[in-house]
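Reminder to self: C-alpha cells first, then the designed residues, so the page reads top to bottom the way the pipeline ran.
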C-alpha cells in the first residue's frame, strides 16, 4: 500500500498534519496503536492561539461546541492561603480572546475522525514495528496488537508523532536512559463538584513539583501535575491507596487552596500516570523524517502549552511539505529535503523560546526558596504572572502558509 505521507501517531500532532495534508488531496496513512477514545496524562488546555488553525482545518465550530468555558485568568497557588490572580494575555487577532480546555478523549477522537473524513486512511489499533528508508522511499511494517494482521506501507515522507515516552520501535526508537533523581513523572485525574472558578487556571507550586487545574467541558475539572522521582520515592513510604492519592495528599499539605477547591469534589475514573518526562529540544527533521509534537521537542508542562505545540508543529510540517510542491505530492528526495529544512527553521522559530521559558518557570515553581523570595514581588505586581504566561506562548500566534 503506497501513500504520499505516512503519519505514525494519531494524537493532536499527527492528526493535525494528516488532516491538513488530506484536505490538500494527499493520500495519507495514519498509524495509531491505541483505540479511541482514550484518556492521557495531559493538562488539556488549548490556548487561544489554536483557533486560527482550527478555522483553517474547518473544525473550530466543533472544538468550540465541545470545549469548556473561556479561561481568562491565571493564579499562583502555593504554600500561602491567599492566592495571587492575574489576567491571562488576551489574543486580539481573532474573535476568540482566550483559550479553553477539552479532555483528550474528546479532542483526539474529534481530530482523527476529521482527518478520516477528509480521506486519510486510519490504521488503528496497529503498531509500527519497523521502518526502513532506501533510495528515498520509506517502507513501514505495521501489525495489529495480536499480530493477526500485518501490512507493509510505503511512502516518500514519514511524520513521526509518536510522542516522547511512547515505547515505539520505529521510526525513532526511544533510547533507555539511566534513572535520575530529577526525572519528572506526570499524574492526572478528573473531578466533579470542585470549587474552582470556571475562568481560572491556577499554577500549583510545591517542593519538587508543579501542577495545574482547569475546567473542561461539562464542569469537569482536570488536575495534572509533575513530580520529581526522588520526591515521589519519599511519598511511596506512606503506602496510601495509589501513587496518585499519595501525590494528591502531598499537594494538599503544601498547597492549601487545592484542598479547599477539592473539599467537596468527587474523582471521576482512575489516576493516570506517565513518565519519565524529559523536556527539551530534540530534532525536528532528519533525512526524510519529520518529527512533530513531543517527538520534536517538549516544553515543561508547567506552561500548559503541550497540546498547542503539538497541533502547531503538525500544521507546520504539513505546510512545509505543501510549499515544496503545490501541484502534487513530493516526487524527489531533493523536494523532501527542501521541505525538511524549511520545517526545521519554522519549528525553532516558533517553539525554541517557549521551551526555554518553560524550563525557567519550572525551576522557579519547584524550589521553595525561589517562591519565597518572589512572593512579595508577585503580590505587589500580580501582572508578573501575565508576563510569564506571555513568555510561555499564550499570545504567540504561529504563522502558517496558505497552500491549497
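Designed residues (404 positions):
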Amino acid at each position: 500500500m503506497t501513500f504520499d505521507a505516512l503519519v505514525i501517531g494519531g494524537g493532536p500532532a499527527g492528526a493535525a498534519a494528516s488532516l491538513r495534508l488530506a484536505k490538500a488531496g494527499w493520500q495519507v496513512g495514519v498509524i495509531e496503536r491505541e483505540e479511541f477514545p482514550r484518556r492521557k496524562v495531559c493538562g488539556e488546555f488549548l490556548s487561544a492561539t489554536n483557533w486560527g488553525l482550527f478555522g483553517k482545518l474547518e473544525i473550530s465550530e466543533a472544538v468550540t461546541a465541545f470545549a469548556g468555558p473561556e479561561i481568562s485568568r491565571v493564579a499562583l497557588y502555593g504554600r500561602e492561603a491567599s492566592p495571587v490572580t492575574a489576567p491571562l494575555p488576551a489574543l486580539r487577532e481573532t474573535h476568540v480572546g482566550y483559550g479553553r480546555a477539552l479532555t483528550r478523549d474528546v479532542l483526539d477522537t474529534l481530530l482523527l475522525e476529521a482527518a478520516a473524513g477528509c480521506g486519510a486512511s486510519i490504521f488503528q489499533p496497529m503498531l509500527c514495528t519497523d521502518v526502513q528508508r532506501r533510495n528515498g522511499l520509506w517502507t513501514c511494517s505495521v501489525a495489529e496488537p495480536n499480530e493477526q494482521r500485518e501490512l507493509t506501507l510505503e511512502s516518500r515522507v514519514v511524520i513521526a508523532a509518536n510522542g516522547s515516552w511512547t515505547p515505539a520501535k520505529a521510526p525513532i526508537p526511544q533510547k533507555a536512559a539511566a534513572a535520575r533523581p530529577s526525572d519528572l513523572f506526570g499524574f492526572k485525574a478528573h473531578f466533579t463538584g470542585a470549587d474552582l472558578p470556571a475562568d481560572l487556571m491556577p499554577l500549583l507550586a510545591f517542593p519538587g513539583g508543579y501542577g495545574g487545574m482547569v475546567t473542561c467541558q461539562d464542569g469537569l475539572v482536570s488536575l495534572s501535575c509533575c513530580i520529581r522521582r526522588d520526591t515521589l520515592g519519599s511519598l511511596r513510604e506512606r503506602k496510601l491507596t495509589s501513587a496518585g492519592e499519595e501525590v494528591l495528599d502531598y499537594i494538599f499539605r503544601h498547597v492549601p487552596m487545592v484542598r479547599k477547591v477539592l473539599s467537596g469534589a468527587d474523582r471521576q475514573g482512575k489516576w493516570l500516570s506517565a513518565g519519565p518526562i524529559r523536556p527539551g529540544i530534540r530534532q525536528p527533521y532528519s533525512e526524510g523524517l519529520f518529527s512533530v509534537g513531543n517527538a520534536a521537542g517538549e516544553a515543561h508542562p508547567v506552561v500548559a502549552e503541550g497540546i498547542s505545540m503539538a497541533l502547531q508543529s503538525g500544521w507546520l510540517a504539513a505546510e512545509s511539505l505543501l510549499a515544496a510542491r503545490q501541484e502534487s505530492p513530493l516526487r524527489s528526495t531533493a523536494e523532501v529535503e527542501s521541505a525538511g529544512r524549511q520545517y526545521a527553521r519554522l519549528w525553532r522559530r516558533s517553539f525554541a523560546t517557549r521551551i526555554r521559558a518553560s524550563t525557567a518557570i519550572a525551576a522557579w515553581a519547584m524550589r521553595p526558596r525561589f517562591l519565597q523570595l518572589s512572593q512579595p514581588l508577585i503580590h505587589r505586581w500580580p501582572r508578573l504572572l501575565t508576563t510569564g504566561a506571555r513568555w510561555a506562548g499564550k499570545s504567540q500566534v504561529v504563522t502558517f502558509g496558505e497552500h491549497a
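The two ends are 25 Å apart (CA to CA).
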